[in-house]
Structures are given as C-alpha cells and as structure tokens.
Amino acid sequence: MQTRSAPDGVVATGTLAYLPVSLFGSAMALSGLALAWRLASREFGWPAWIGEGIGLVAAIDFLVLTLAYGLKCAGAPAAVRAEFAHPVAANFFATPLIALLLLSAVVFPHAATAGRVLWLVGTIAMTGFAWLSVSRWMSVRQQLAHATPAWMVPVVGMLNISIGGVATDLPEQHPVCVFALAVGLFFTIPLFTLILSRLIFEEPMPAAQQPSLLILVATFAVGFSAYLDIAGRLDLYASALFFLAVFMFAVLVPKLVRLRSASPFHTSWWAVSFPLAAMSVAALKFAVYQPGWPARTFAIAMLAFATLAILSLAVRTIAGIARGELRHLTT
Question: Each residue of 211-268: pLDDT tens digit?
Fold first, then answer.
C-alpha cells in the first residue's frame, strides 16, 4: 500500500503531517478479523470474547485514527490535498469508508441503531467516492505506471456495502446491496486486466509497494462474501469467485513471505492485513456451506495466519510510533 502522506513538492510540518490515510487499513483489517473470529465462534464453538474484543480494538483504532487525521487536516492541509491529488495515494481515501462499513457489521449485534447509521453514512460516502474515482479515471489521462492494485480499493469498498447491508438487515437494503455488488464486480474486470498488464509489461513495483499486491486477493474474497450474503447459497458463481481468490492468494503469498527480507518495515505493509482478514472470512463462509475437513482446515489455517500477521503488524507499528518513527515509517 503506497502511503505517501506528503507527496513531492509538499513540505509538511509536524509528526501528524506524515500520517497516511492508508493507515485506516488497520481499522479495516481489525474489523474484518473481528467478523472472522465471530464466524469461527459460531461455527466451531470457540470463545466469543475473542472476536468481540478484536471488534472493540477496531473501533478504538478507527476513532484514534479519525482524530489524528482530523488534526492533520487542520494542521497540514497542503499535505492532505497533495495526498488526495496523487494518482495512487488518493485511492486510499476509501479505507476509512470501508472501515466504517465493516464496523457497522461489528457494532450491529450490540447496538442495532448505531450499526445501521454507520452503514448508511458509509454507503453514501463510499458510493460518492467510487463515483469520484471513476470520473477521475475517465476525465484525466492516466499513466500505466500508476495502475497499481491501489486502484482496486474503491472497488473493494463498494463490495463491502453489500456485506454491511446484509448484516444490518434494513428493510430497503437489498437493492442497494445488489447495486453495490454489481458496480464492484463489474469494475473488477477491467481494473484487474489493466493492473495485470502493468505488472507484466512495466517495471516491477518498488519493494515498499509490493504488499499492495495482496489487494488483488481481497477483491475476489470480498466479492465472494458479498455475493454469498446476498444470494444466500453457494452456487457455481460463488464457488468460482472463492477459488479464484484462493488461486490469487497462492500466487501472491510467496511475495508476502519474502517481504521481510526484501524491505525494512513500512506502514505500507498494512496492505496485506485486510486481504488476509477478508480471505479468512471467505474461507470460513465457504466452510459453512461446504462442510468437510479440507474446507475447515483451510479456514482455520487462514484465520490463524491472518491473526498472527495482523498482531505482528500492530506491535511493530505501535512500537515505531512510540519511538517517534512515524515519518521514517511512512515516507
């Protein structure tokens, strides 16, 4: 995940000026992980407090980041404008909106009204941002070198409208969820083709941006979960989406394994967190509809892997911020 909070030409002052909006990916990951553990508790009888505890941490993380980024907007508006104008970094302004949609599903069992309000706000904001992103792509000439997996983030955001909508069970949510699913899945096809073409024919992505490749997994994993929630059955199309996510994960996970030796720790590593959480949710849902030891084993392995990876990222990030390394970790 590219996390340049002070792009070229911007002189930012103050520690928070270097806070990247993409760090909201941590709230996305924690929310997704909370939903995964909630599913595991329901399916395997594991302690429910684990998922609910992670959900509480996700909510706190979101609130802290919202306050911190709000202070950045007030204290370094030029850095925020430059981040929003950047052809790659701008896509990550969808991350707080996705986190909001996921938090609506996390909160709903405990506070139905709050969950529905969060979903409505997130849906309106996410749809508007997706419209703005597509309008920008079609109105301003883009460079192929900028076609990175980050362009998928607004698409993933639209798919999460469906997940949050089904969870909140609003009377009129069904057509909205179908609309979001249609937009998300349709734009996946040309964007995936464009990004794959850039990866094949252009220079390799810099090491710091390599983690964002896992976003390609998240698109299909979230697409599967959203379609399954709306359709309510595991049909051929749902299975195809799931197995495509599994294949992409198998292709890209070696890059994740080599990441530690390829580059020093950077907040861009958080790009791997939500895809892992989304893959865990997808695997658990698949195991519910397709019972058997292979599906259950894969689901448990994915959940364990995602939990350890996200915990490691959280510890490393908190330690870095505590040591005053935010600028170093984000630029």
Answer: 888 999 999 999 999 999 999 999 999 999 999 999 999 999 887 776 665 556 677 7
How many angstroms from the chain centroid is the CA of residue 11? Answer: 29
- What six digits make up the tokens of 37? 């553990």
Between CA 83 and CA 3 the distance in angstroms is 9
Domains of the chain: 15-330 (1.50.10.150)
Scanning 232-292, the segments in alpha helix (DSSP H) are: 236-262, 273-289
Sequence-distant (≥ 6) Cβ neighbours of residue 312 within 8 angstroms: none
Judge whether 173 and 166 are in contact, CB under 8 Å.
yes
Please compute Rg for the chain using Cα positions: 18
Count, residues in the chain: 331
pLDDT 10s digits, 46-97: 999 999 999 999 999 999 999 999 999 998 899 999 999 988 889 999 999 9
